[in-house]
Specification:
Blueprint lengths: L2 H6 L10 E3 L4 E4 L4 E6 L2 E2 L7 E2 L6
Antiparallel strand pairs: 1-2, 2-3, 3-4, 3-5
Protein name: UPF0434 protein AW11_03871
Family: In the N-terminal section; belongs to the LpxK family.
Pfam family, one: Trm112p
Length: 58
Amino acid sequence: MDARLLDILVCPICKANLEYRKAQSELVCKPCRLAFPVRDGIPIMLQDEARPLTTDEA
């Protein structure tokens, strides 16, 4: 994931900064407790595609 892209991407729901988790290939929004997938290097920033974080992951 390009660092410059991470600097400008925000959560599409609450506009918070996102954390990239390379091992899971996800962008995580802690306030919304959602993880957005990154497929083939492309962030999928759709609420319907996001998965809710478990208590341990948040």
